[in-house]
Each structure stands twice: as structure tokens, then as C-alpha cells.
Amino acid sequence: MKIKLIILFISLSSCLHLSAQEDSLSNRLHECLPSGHPTTHTAYRQVVRSTMIGAGFANVFDTYLSPLEYKGADVRFLLENIRMTGLMNGRVSVQHLFQVSFDYTKNPSKSVKSYSGLINWSYALHYQKEYSKRLKILIGPMLDINGGVIYNQRNSNNPAQAKAYASLGGSAMAIYKFNIGRSPFTLRYQANLPLLGIMFSPEYGESYYEIFGLGNGGKNVICTSLHNMPSLRQMLTLDCPIKNTILRIGYLCDIQQSKVNNLKSHTYSHDFMIGVVRNLYFIKGKKKANFHKTDSPY
Predict the structure, then answer these.
(1) DSSP category for residue 36
(2) How far is CA 144 from CA 5, 12, 289, in A?
């Protein structure tokens, strides 16, 4: 069962990578200028790209390293790409989310420090249902991959714990557009829920030297689901126009937790995010093209 799951994740990742390469080779990327749209091409694909940075609060707990919760600061970088596809008569959008987070935390007595970092990449396909000119509901499957490490200053034999896990799950989004005066605003809420996956974890009391140095590893690849890894990522954003720039502000709640091999772990992060949004276009052809608002993933 584990081998089949690993092969499934590798196959999905390979297919997604090839699809991304195909897009980049067959299209040229142009940025839409505020003064107007390109008009000398036959086809285009709009891409909404946002870059955000943020900071907030983190709660880190891992019984492999310590029985105590460590609390402190979290900083985060997030890059998002979302565009429409040709699937289901053009009603499906694809979203790439890439984020890097770093936590600096201390134990309750402030005597020991802990450092942790996590890289996350997710790929989601959303079927878009438009309920009005203002409201869209999106829902679909998601692939989520994570890797990182937690380092604790106190421990000498086992000072660090590696984090490596991937999952298939569901993703949902609600997009609401409104105006204040003549200025258009976009409010978006998104939730990503992992359902079935795999995770690397040492067993209770097992060192990494035993696993990789001596080759005496035990049950280190675990199947995960809601029963042993109930996790959730949520994001709320507001797009605000400021002259020729779209400013994005938001709140991100990242709840990652697991209970495997008699080890408990969680990382709770709450971050205020800020960044910018750009509307880009994949262009091909040489004739005049018509641009429609309905082609936008937002």
C-alpha cells in the first residue's frame, strides 16, 4: 500500500511538472499594461499572480524533541499563480501556491530556543460556479507537498526533527467582488484540507543515526488521513486598487498537526500578509484577439 501511494505521488508530480514546462515552451508571457490590452494576437490566457510577505505568531510542538510547546514569531513568503484552463468547457482554473515559512520560538521559561522552517507547494484544480456577477464558488482536488526541519538548542543526541509529508485533498474558495465608490475590490476566502497522504517519521525513541547510519529504521513511512493528521490551511485576502497597482492584504491560518509512531507534533501559525497582484497574459498567434472579463480566473 505504501509503495503504491509513493508511486502515485511521484507520477502526479511528474505530470504536473511536464504540464508546466509545456505551457512555458508554447507561450510567451506578457504583462497587461494599465493603458490597454494587447490587440495583435489570436489567443491569450490570463494569469493572476500575487507575491506576498507576512509575519505573525507561531506555536510549535514536537514530542520527539521536547514535551513543551514553543511559542514565538513566524515570517512567511507566499507566491500564488492562478489561471483558467480548457477543462470542462473552460470552467476549471488551476492554482499553484508556493510558500516558505520560518519560526523562531522559545519554551515557556524563555530559556531554550527553537528554530523551524517549512517549504510548501500545492497544486489545485477548481471548478468555478458563478452565482452572480459578484460571487463565485470554486471547489476541486488538491496535491500538497511539504518539507522542512525543526531544530532545538537543548538536545544533543537528537537536536533536529525532519518534516516530509505529502497528501491529496480538497480545496474550496469563495470570491466576492464589490465596489466602494468607483473603486473595485475583491474579497477571497480559501481553505485547503488534506485527506489522504504519506509522511516520514522516526519511531518513538529512534535516532536518525539508527535510521540512516546503521540502516535499522523501523516503520518510518506512515499513511496519513484525518485520523492521524487533521490539518487545515485557510487564507482570507482583500484586493485593493491603488492607482495602477493592486494591493493585496490578508490573513493566513496554517494548522499542521499529526500523531504518528507515538509522537505528537503541531505547528500553528497566524500571519498578517501584504503584497501585490499582477495580471499577466500567455500570448500566441498574430491576429486580433477579443478580451473578455469572463476569461479571468477571478
Answers:
(1) B
(2) 14, 11, 36
- Mean pLDDT computed over 245-265: 96
Start-end of H helices in the chain? 2-26, 208
The domains of the chain are located at 2-293
Of 120, 143, 118, the closest CA to residue 16 belongs to 143
Is 172's pLDDT higher than 70?
yes
In the structure grid, which three cell numbers stand for residue 14, read together? Answer: 511528474
| CA Rg value for the chain | 22
CATH architecture of 2-293: Beta Barrel (2.40)
Q: Which pLDDT score, from 0 to 100, does residue 180 have?
A: 92
Cell 500578509, residue? Answer: 273
pTM: 0.81
Quickly tell me which residue has 540512516 as its cell: 212
**Which three cell numbers mark 287?**
491576429
Number of helices (H), then strands (E), in the chain:
2, 12
Report whether 232 contacts 290 (CB < 8 A): no
Note whether 126 and 173 are within 8 A (CB).
yes
Residue identified by cell 508571457 is 29
Contact 264, 31 (CB under 8 A): no
